[in-house]
Amino acid sequence: MEVNVGFLARRRSGSISVRTHELRCDVIHFGRSADSEVHLADPRISQHQATLNETHDGFRFETQLEGDVVIDGVATSEAAIKPGSVIQLGPYEIKIIESQEGVDLSLTVELTEPMAEELDELKARNKTSLDKAWPNRRSVSWVLALLILGLFLAWPVGKHYMERDNQAATPSPMEVVEMGDRVWPVAGDLAWDTGEVSTPHKFLAKNCSVCHRNAFEQVTDAVCVACHEKTEQHVDTKNYPLPEITQATCQSCHKEHQGPAHIVRNDQQFCAECHLDIKSVAKELDLGPASDFGANHPEFRPMVMVNGRTKKRERMTLDPKKWPVEKSNLNFSHVQHLDPKGMRVPNKVARQVMDCADCHVAEATGEYMQPITMEKHCASCHLLQFDARAPDRTVVHGSVELTMRTMREFYATLALEGGARAPRASSSGRRRPGSALTENARREAVAWADRMTAQSAQQVFGKAVCKTCHIVTQKTERGRIKWNIEPVTVAARWLEKGKFDHVRHESMECADCHDAKKSKKATDVLLPKVATCQKCHAGENATSKVASTCVTCHAFHLPGKQPMRPGLVKSAKRKK
Amino acid sequence: MAVTQSSETEQGAPERLGVLQEPVISSGNYKYLKLALTLILISIAAYIYDEPLGQPNGGTWIGYTLGTVGALLIVWLGWFGIRKRRYGTGGMMLQEWLSAHVYLGFSLIVIATLHAGFQVGLNVHTLAYVLMLIVILSGVWGIYLYIALPTRMSESRGGITLDQLVVLIADLDKSALGKSVKLGDDINDLVRDAVENTTIGGGMVRQLSGRDPSCPTARALERIGELVKSLSGGDAATGRQLVVDLARKNRLLTVARLDVKYRAWLNLWLLVHVPATVGLIAALIAHILSVFFYW
Amino acid sequence: MSERYQIAIIGSGPGGMSAAGRAAELGVSHILLERTDHLSDTIYKYQKGKHVMATPDILPLRSSMTFEAGAREAVLGAWDNECEKHGVNIRYNADLTGMKGEKGNFELTVNGSETIEADAVVLAIGLQGNLNPLRVPGAEWEGVQYQLDDPEEYEDETIVVIGAGDAAIENAVALSEQNQVIIVNRRNEFARAKDGNRKLIEDAIESEKLRCAYEANPVSVAPGEITLESKGGQERVSCNRVIARLGASPPRRFVESCGVEFPSEEMAALPELSPQYESNVSGLYIIGALGGYPLIKQAMNQGYEVVEFIQGNNIKPADEPLLEDKFGPLIDRFTVDEAIDWLRENIPLIRGLTALQLREVLLESDLHIKAAGDPIFEINEFGTTVFMIAEGLAHVQIDPTDPSVVVPLDTGKFFGEIAMVAARPRTATVVAAEPSVLLEIPRRTMIKLMNSVASVETQIRDAATARQLRVHLSQSISDELMGTILETAEEREFKWGQPLLQEGEESDGVFVIRKGSVTIYESAGGHEAFRAFAATGEFVGEGGVIENTKRGQTIRAATQVESIWIAGDRFKRIVDEVPDFKRRVHETMLTRVRHNQAASANEAWERSAEFLVDQGMGEATDILLIDETLCIGCDNCEKACAETHGGIARLKRETGPTFGNIHLPIACRHCEDPYCMSDCPADAIHRAQSGEVFIDEKCIGCGNCKINCPYDSIEMSGAPASKPGLLSWLLFGAGSGPGQNQAPAKPDNGGAAAPKLAVKCDSCKEIKGGHACVRACPTGAAFRVSPSEYFARIGS
């Protein structure tokens, strides 16, 4: 067949150039291979892409391998074609056009989708900068910043105000506990916690706004005293309005969020500021200068009973030259009781050896000793007998009257019963038991009982029993002797300003501090001198001794002074 | 010219001179290193000297001082991001700024740690501290890259720019296509694949690794190397030239990808450094405000 | 019977038209002959919308026509109206083909046939001449054009450009931006074009931006098609238009045919004219570009004046007032004309000039009146002007260390020529020793002078030679000795790479480098190994001469080199007779030896130095280098440059050659003798006193400098889009970041973008602290050095 093939080339200007070929062949091959009649030199075309044959009734276009072929808008692999048909063969467009005389078929071939410029394509494909492969720094930064500001600033602040409003006043501890624990992130401000709360305040730890009430305001004393209303002053601020004390806030000494250790201020320097030269602060006081327990601490000055009767006590220095004397109206000799050979004990043959612990027993708190009582500690040996013929009868350790009555009743009973056990009782003539007693006989019996009572009283008060420990005095009223026992006033504590924990010292011997083995009289003040403590203890910077600061023994808030912040207490109360 | 350059890469770079310029680290005869050390020593001395009530932390006067210094430092260090873009201003060379940025940045570790009194916890304050460490460490990493990479980078490029490489590669694509068009479909398809689907760089991983395991060009090169053996006559010749083209393209690709790799690494650390810095500043604001909010 | 006029004016350019306008105003019978069918063809052919400048601004306009800077269209429009208003008698399509006669009876032949008679003729045809038409069948197709108004007008067209001249190249390249361009070159290379343009076109062809048909000629044109003939036979190219750039035939031949004489064969030379613009042919007046006044305003003034002159009223030129205040105080002593004569009297150098030329020169020059002791210029200042002493005495301080050592120069002498000739910094400080009157002439003017007046050139050059020898060798050289030196001294110029002397040659003399720089090689292991570098002011080749040995080294020009060759014996005499020079010679030789050793010890450095010299470092004064062992490719240098220079970076960091770890980014090196300056029509490129080469606002965007710069360091660029503040970018990514630019801003009126102007590195001369690029380099990789500094590094 005679075929006219026109290759169209479109210029950028839009003008079209045509290169025409005449073919004479039976089959037209379309393909990239050089031998094909219609040579389509585009890499996207296969070597033998399609053929066009003449059939009895026209022409047929077929693709060998199913490429993307669209004939007159229909995707197919073969179809009959006639003038006007349009074949989209890959990037090429093949149009069948009307042929002039002598030509069976004419078609135009145009590359309608030329290959893109390799360079542009390559550039378009390449991604050579990280920003293109990754969210850029700006957006990441924004997200991060907003997240942080929102979560750790905006939210907590907002939350703080929300909660503060429905929690009007400083709540009491129990109220706080009832609030229950708050948790992060609901309670945003927990992220602000700067450190562990001190042990006693742990129950507050998760309710920040209980203490931190107002923004940008340090925690106020009102908050503290709301609970600690009873805390008292260090000095009487009326007489001593020291700015260090009156102007200080709770916070200036009590730092919170410092872990369990640090809520109480314990540096000796703090005390030394005043006590190093205490006279300059309060000259009329007889306090000695103190700044360091090891280096600079005055001798102990116990409260000593100077007059048992008037109960007058005085602070006296433990001065070896004139050691204080405790006038407690007690007679007692530690030496006797601690006799290593032991002591005789009623109704027993063996002697009993005693030691301190037999009488001095620590209190439950461990700090001090339980008071000594007759009943607990003495009575087992010191039986209060009054009549040798009736050793099993004793008086009660109590008042003089009671003792007297006890004895009188005893002798009266004897007299009335009569018998041998009541010698020299004149009225005890021979008489049939049960027969009524004569007036005389009764009078004699009473007189006898009185006589016997007086005798025993002489014995009990005047000589043996009471006098052993007590100071007994007598005076005669209308011929009758009146006995009197001076009250015993043993000091509960001599050193009231400092505290001492006996149990913590249990590893030591009592004798290490208390020289009881030599003490014959109860008037001895068996206290160690400060030097004794200083053998083991020294100031807070001590390295080779027990580092002890002021608050180891002394308290800052002293009993008996007025409360720290009276005004605030009220106001805090009012809030409740 | 293109050719000479490409051959240049293939020969490898000529021997190099020593560093002609003073590097950042030693800039100004270690001026800022000295400054930073002084700062550090002063802080440590102050920290040791001070015996605060309670534990040392941001609340003591040393704490406040160190905190202020640290905060100012952070703001100033962050300012570098702006300073380096405010061109033609100020007397100081950017190099000096960078040097100062580096060393004072270091000193921040000490200052901030002392400010915190070695306390950490699960809170915004420690968050700020951690962010700061991230910033500084990423910075250290950056400095390392800045010192290590440039030489390798310029050696691998051997004086050609990435753009030029891309152009060269595109040229090779063109000529490869020109040849493959004359050859069988199998070869031609491979070449087309290589031309149309070869990319330089790509995702994070591709850029950072500097290689493309599934590179169509490499594949084409390998397969066609085999296929051409079966060709004969003129085709054989064309085939061989084609292989040469592909081989060269492959070589250039390696160079280009290596270059992309280095660029990527030189930027990667900034992806950490910068956002972390911004985060840090945010955290710092939160830290300061919160501390005084609950005073 | 042919018509007759008092005045026939040839050419309706600004000059002619203005003359005709004046004549019409005065009612003088006149005719204005215009070859084309419109006024002022030259300007008519400017690119569309081109901004027409009205320089020199100082010069007042004196004409019946108005003229102010503005768009081409506006200017032409105004003129058309005014010619009508004044009733100017114009004849279009009237090509003057011949002229004879003189005052009173001129006979002009128009279009070959008709004749016109005139008493006086004003020749205002300009230098543009007539463009050569395409002489092939079918050339009348309107697709064939000889001018290109606006390259951006055409898109996606196939355009055939015929010609290999600068115009053709510029058009072709401009068009190839968005068209398919075929440039037709009769020869097989672009020999005729400026170097810059040749490079431009060759690059374009290599990069296939356009196609070139070498050794091809157009044979015929048909609408939409042109047929080219080349060795390969005929080729029919279908195209949308043909642009024929076949050059213009210079008018000189024609002018001479009218009997006018030129002073020299120098192509740039101008015909000699009287103060009334009358040529040696009486009654034939020449104005405008042809008379040496290329500027529109000048030409228009002349048009006005020439008519007045012909009318016999001898008005003062329009520049009179300007000159008056140039002369300043002198005016108390003379009138302007007297002053001009007085200057001529006192300054031999300018006696050769015509009054007109002199006025011209004076307009561009400055007259200084200095008191005794006033400094005139300082050593190492950058200045390229020449000073002439009209009266008084000046002292040249030849010893920088001791100002009392001076060379006196009295009335008539000149100085500053060294700097002018070699474009070097001032070599000495000059102060006025007595109250003096000095004439300061700018380099451009001076060069114009030297071209048109031979005497000026020779005098300047001789003086320069002698003085340079003194400056570069020793000031203590006696005049007598200098005389003998000059007898045999020769000026020798060398092309880049050309050897001044070769290893093994006889050591016949010494070269004093007057301009440019040289590199010194030693053959080592079969190749020439770089050893040292010598710049202007140094001398080379002394070794062999002193030691009477053969040349031990080869010395090549590292740039275009101008040198003074001194015979060996003369040189020895200087060494023997001038002690301080003897010392210097030996020091020089010592340092050279040291450098040799250092260089030979370090091959990497040696090779890098060769590389740098190949890259033209030799002619740089201030070159930007990047140490790639430090460069992290952050492009902060580029950004800094852009941000400190109106958004356009003048440096390209990544592009540019690299050797080992030395990278030469594309950035201005502030050449010793800047290519860009060589042909700037607006005189917009200057060298600051501190040495920076910069372009000022006078730039008209012609692009010559870009083409001339061999280092691609000049860009043509419009103003970029304005940016939001840095922070709004940093925080919100608003606008484009530092160094990144959006497309140049279009003016709000939606009109054409502002014209692209030339931008280049100005070494940040305006910026406190200097080079923004260097200061913005975070790692200190970027640094700027002068070649001498750089090459000295190795010695130390």
Taken from the alpha-carbon principal axes, the silhouette of chain A is: rod-shaped
> What is the general shape of chain B?
elongated
Measured distance between first and last alpha carbons of chain B: 71 Å
Which structural class best describes the helix and strand composition of chain B? mainly alpha
H/E series of chain B: HHHHHHHHHH
> DSSP strand (E) fraction of chain B?
under 5%
Q: What level of helicity do the residues of chain A show?
A: 25-40%
Mean pLDDT of chain A, to the nearest integer, reads 83
DSSP helical segment count of chain B: 10
Q: Give a short account of the largest sheet of chain A.
A: 7 strands, mixed
Alpha-beta content class of chain A: alpha+beta
Poorly predicted segments of chain A: 572-576
Cα distance spanning the termini of chain A: 115 Å
Mean pLDDT of chain B: 87
What ranges of chain B have pLDDT less than 50 throughout 5 or more consecutive residues? 1-14
Biggest beta sheet attributes of chain B = none
| Secondary structure: number of strands of chain B | 0
What labels would you give this structure?
heterotrimer; B: 295 residues; mainly alpha; 10 helices; 0% strand; disordered N terminus; C: 796 residues; alpha+beta; seven-stranded mixed beta sheet; five-stranded parallel beta sheet; 43 strands; 31% helix
Summary, kept brief:
Chain A has 576 residues and is an alpha+beta fold. Helices cover 27% and strands 15% of the residues of chain A. Chain A contains 18 helices and 18 strands.
Describe what this molecule looks like in 3D:
The complex is a heterotrimer of chains A (about 575), B (about 300) and C (about 800). Chain A has about 575 residues and is of the alpha+beta class. Chain A has a 7-stranded mixed beta sheet with strand order 2-1-12-11-10-7-8, with no helix packed on it. Chain A has a 5-stranded mixed beta sheet with strand order 4-3-5-6-9, with no helix packed on it. In chain A, strands 13-14 form a two-stranded antiparallel ribbon. Chain A starts with a strand and ends with a helix. Mean pLDDT of chain A is about 85; it is low at about 570-575. Chain A has 18 helices and 18 strands. Chain A has helices at about 120-125, 130-135, 135-165, 175-180, 210, 220-225, 245, 250-255, 270-275, 280, 335, 375-380, 400-415, 440-465, 510-515, 530-535, 550-555, 565-575, and strands spanning about 1-10, 15-25, 25-30, 40, 50-55, 60-65, 70, 75, 80, 85-90, 90-95, 105-110, 305, 310-315, 470-475, 480-485, 535-540, 545. Chain B is elongated. Chain C has about 800 residues and is an alpha+beta fold. Helices cover about 30% and strands about 25% of the residues of chain C. In chain C, α1 (about 15-25) runs parallel beside α3, α1 (about 15-25) runs parallel beside α7 (about 295-310) and α17 crosses α18 (about 580-600). The radius of gyration of chain C is 30 Å and the shape is globular. The model of chain C has no long low-confidence stretch (mean pLDDT about 85). Chains in contact: A-B, A-C, B-C.
